[in-house]
Structure formats: C-alpha cells, structure tokens
Amino acid sequence: MKRIFFSLAMISGVIILFGCSCSRHASAAKSAKDTLYTPFTKELKRQVENNHLDIMKLQFFVDQKLILRRSLGTQKSEIKSGVILFEKGQYINEVIIPKNTPGVCEIVNGDHLMVSFELQNNNVEFGPGGLNEGFFTLYARNWNGGMADLTYDNKTYKLQCATCYNAGDVKLLVRKSEADKLQRTQRIVEGRKVDN
Q: What long-range pairs does 87-92 form, CB within 8 A, spacing at least 24?
C-alpha cells in the first residue's frame, strides 16, 4: 500500500513540475517575442530623417489586436475586406488586425504616418501624442468610451481595441533590431583640444 501511495505521489509531483515548466517556457517565449519590437517614437522618426533613410522602407507593426466593425443593415452587400457576420438581425462587416500585424507606411504627412496593413485603400493614421506622449498612436475621430470612427477601405468603421480598453492606447512598433541600428549610427563628436 505504501508503494502505491509513494508511486502516485511521485507521478503527481512529476506532472506538477512538468506543468509548471511548460507554462514558464510558454511565458518566456511570449516575453521573448514581445521584446523583438519597440514602440516607434518621435525620437526614432527624427533619427530616420537625420540618417536620410526612407521611412517607407521600415517595417511597422501594431501592438494590439484591433477590430473594425460596420453595420451593413439587413441586406448583404459586397465587401472587399473582412468577413460578414449576422448579429441581432443585422449583417456586420468585421475586419480584424491582429497584434504584431506587419504594415507599410504609404504616406508621411508631417508627423503623421499613414500605415497600410493590406493592399487596397485602407491606410490607418498614426501620430505622436494622444494618450502616450511621444509614441506613435492611432488617430481616429468621434472618440467615445475607448472606441472611435475610422475610415477604412473608403467606409466608416467603429474601431475598438480587442486587447485593451482604449483604442487610443494602440501603438505603432518597429523591430528592435531596426531601432538599435538607428541608435548606433548616431554619434556626437565632442572635438579635440590642442595639448599644451
């Protein structure tokens, strides 16, 4: 009887240790993936410009999952982006932009960047300021309760962040290696003085 109890206790202990180990590895992998990116800031944009680099050749990413929704009414209509859902008697067009989705800057307008996450007429505007001063965050209109209106594919969608409370918290990211390259290429020379 003691052997059976001892064997069960050992097996239970191994299972618990293995389970903890797996969750730590999964957590470490997730953490490592998130450290591959860094927020795009006014300072990084300035470094890009000072080094005469083309901002349109930078690979951008979005740091949160975004959901864009618009009602189509009771009639299905042709859509170019997203999927059609039927909800409460209404057809809903939903476009999802997952976290870390790559995007390309198509237009630079002063401090504002128009970033496209897919081909077509679907730029999303980012700029410095908002809730996160200095970071490039989402720009939209008619903000209410963390949601806003956004023109996407020439249509107005209700924008919300699926992984945060306020879509205004969504930041534009670049790969950390890209940011490190920019920071390493800039150096201020202090000069030399004549030895007496």
A: none
Which residues on neighbouring strands pair with residue 6, listed in sequence order?
none
User: How far is 164 from 64, CA to CA, in rounded Å?
Assistant: 7
Residues 62/97, Cβ–Cβ less than 8 Å: yes
User: How far is 159 from 133, CA to CA, in rounded Å?
Assistant: 21
pLDDT in tens, 49-78: 888 888 988 999 999 999 988 877 655 555
CA dihedral 143, 147, 152, 157 (to 10 degrees): -100
Burial of 11 (0-12, 13-18, 19+ CB in 10 A): exposed
Q: Which long-range contacts (CB under 8 A, 24 or more apart) does 34-38 make?
A: 35/176, 36/175, 36/176, 36/177, 37/61, 37/63, 37/100, 37/173, 37/174, 37/175, 37/176, 38/173, 38/174, 38/175, 38/176, 38/179
CA distances from residue 9 to 13, 17, 18, 75 in whole angstroms, order as listed: 6, 12, 14, 62
- Domain extents for the chain? 37-185
Judging by DSSP bridges, how do beta strands 141-144 and 132-138 pair with one another? unpaired
Residues of the chain under the 50 pLDDT cut: 8, 14, 17-18, 21-32, 185
Classify 80 as helix, strand or coil.
Answer: coil
Residue 34 phi, psi (nearest 5): -65, -30
Structure letter (DSSP) for residue 17: H
| Beta partners for residue 94, in sequence order | 69, 83
